[in-house]
Amino acid sequence: MKFQKLNSKGFTHDVILMLFVGIFAIAGVAYLVGSHAATLNSAQFSGVITQDECATTTAPIGDVGCHITVGTKVVSVAHGNIAQNAPWGQVIGFGSIKTNYTGRTVQVYAAENNPTSYTLKGSSSYYVKLVTYPSVKFTGVITQDECATTTAPIGDVGCHVMVSNSTVYLMHGNIYQPQPWGQVIGFGSIRTNYVGRYLQVYAAKLNASTYTLMGSSSYYAQLLKTPSGGIVPGSNCVPTSTTACPL
Q1: Same domain as 88, residue 56
Q2: Could you tell me the CA-to-CA distances from 184 to 87, 104, 110, 115, 189 in Å, in that order?
């Protein structure tokens, strides 16, 4: 018969060794998990807000926080009480967190939880910034009237016209309804084809060749009575199919 040597508490040395190994293994896993959580990658991107849960939620934001969806990426922008002690980034350019900014473009710098989930939690340098665009005024020739020719439901997807090589978004779809929108003036019907007519535009300039009436109720697109080839009222300029007249 073989006897094992016990310690003063009645355990074998092998059992004690196994207990120590188990404890250290659990501690190691906890450390690795904690280290991973503390070292999330930071990411920068921009996109259009497709859903503004901060504006639509009925839950108390002060308690549970809120998020927006940028394209298909969910970004937590406001913390609830549970995250009060953690550093948190800034929300820049939002007049109110409860204003619905669906359709607006934002720049994001945040921690990446995964490819579709981001958060401002973790650093005061993180931010979500509402992009603002310059307002411009010009007159050009309508060379393509997508509002008249599209078979898509304008009430759902909106529509645009091409004016002297530039795209001008005239009508919003349902997705952009929360945003202020300018007026379309002088159109008997948005479905009438006005190719060849002069259009005076006051709109936000998204880039060198794209404009939108979204963002201000003072924006407009006004159909002029000036015949094709005529001088634009108030200027000495004659717009062409490729060159607009700045105002």
Answers
A1: yes
A2: 46, 20, 38, 40, 10
182 plus 91 within the same structural domain: no
Q: Which has the higher per-residue pLDDT, 181 or 18?
A: 181
Q: Which of 109, 130, 151 delimits the end of a domain?
A: 130
pTM beyond 0.85: the answer is: no
Of 130, 147, 172, which one is at a domain's C-terminal end?
130
Q: Are 139 and 116 members of one domain?
A: no
* CB-CB neighbours of 28 under 10 Å: 10
Take residue 169 and report the two structure tokens written for it: 């978004």
Domain tally for the chain?
2
- Residue closest to 75 by CA, chosen among 86, 65, 63: 65
pLDDT at 228: 83
Average pLDDT over residues 140-161: 90
Q: How high is the pLDDT of residue 21?
A: 46
Residue-wise DSSP of 197-239: SEEEEEEEEEETTEEESBT-TT-EEEE--PPTTSPPTTSS---
Taking only the tens place, the pLDDT of each residue in 165-180 is 999 999 887 766 667 8
Residues 53 and 144 in one domain: no
